[in-house]
Amino acid sequence: MNEQNQHLDALQDIRQMMQRSSRFISLSGLSGIAAGIWALIGAWFAYDWIYEGKVNNRLSDYEQSGSAFSPTKLGLNLVLLAGAVLAASLVSAFYFTWRKTARDKVSLWNHSSKMLTLNMVIPLITGGLFILALIQNNEWRFIAPSCLIFYGLALVNASKYTVSDIRYLGICEIVLGLINTQFIGYGLHFWAIGFGVLHIIYGFIMWWKYERKEK
């Protein structure tokens, strides 16, 4: 019986080694939670700016001339805000993932992480260029659904090089984006749910499954 257990343990060790060599499994759940928090903060600022912009549009022409907001400036502010949220999320993801790889004593930039990045970047760049085209043509209604759908596609595409939980998050983002196409006026709400709430839930699940026992 002891010999059989030893064989099973050896097979499990081999399986874990093969999994580590083909998949980047050092993603930190805390990075997902941080990204969700940044997204919710960004959504709060965006809602405040959009609401103020709507109020300003109700003012007289004389009052609007002295307003701090215009549709063009508001759009630029929202794009810059989205960029700031993305930058903060990337910095948080790098820090928490770097900390976890150091704790796991594995390389942060290896073949698996390179393939993960490549397969995620291609749909993201494609989606980013498509969204820029929407902005160029003043089609703001479909920006939020497009963000969710292309981000979900990027996660699904990259999931084969990391833990399977990423695939489920990607599917949820895609479904949420498709639903958003039928409720155009609520794009910011769907954006907050997809990039904020879902990220926090996903991050907590990742932390509970893979990191809690390491403490």
Rounded mean pLDDT is: 81
The Rg value, from CA coordinates, equals 21 Å
Proportion of strand residues:
under 5%
In N-to-C order, the SSE pattern is: HHHHHHHH
User: Helical element count?
Assistant: 8
Which sheet architecture does the biggest sheet show? none
SSE class: mainly alpha
Indicate the overall shape: globular
- The first-to-last residue Cα distance is 32 Å
Report low-confidence residues grouped into runs of 5 or more.
13-22, 59-70
Percent of residues in helices:
over 70%
Number of strands: 0
Structure characterization notes:
The protein has helices spanning 2-22, 29-57, 61-65, 71-104, 111-136, 143-158, 165-180, 187-211. The protein has a domain at 109-215. The chain has eight helices and no strands. The relative contact order is 0.15. The longest helix has 34 residues, at 71-104. By secondary structure, it is an all-alpha fold. α2 (29-57) packs antiparallel against α8 (187-211) and α6 (143-158) packs antiparallel against α7.
Brief summary of the model shown:
The protein is mostly helical and 215 residues long. 80% of the residues lie in helices and 0% in strands. The protein has eight helices and no strands.
Features:
215 residues; mainly alpha; 0% strand; globular
Topology:
Blueprint: H1 2-22, H2 29-57, H3 61-65, H4 71-104, H5 111-136, H6 143-158, H7 165-180, H8 187-211
Helix pairs in contact: 2-4, 2-8, 5-6, 6-7, 6-8, 7-8
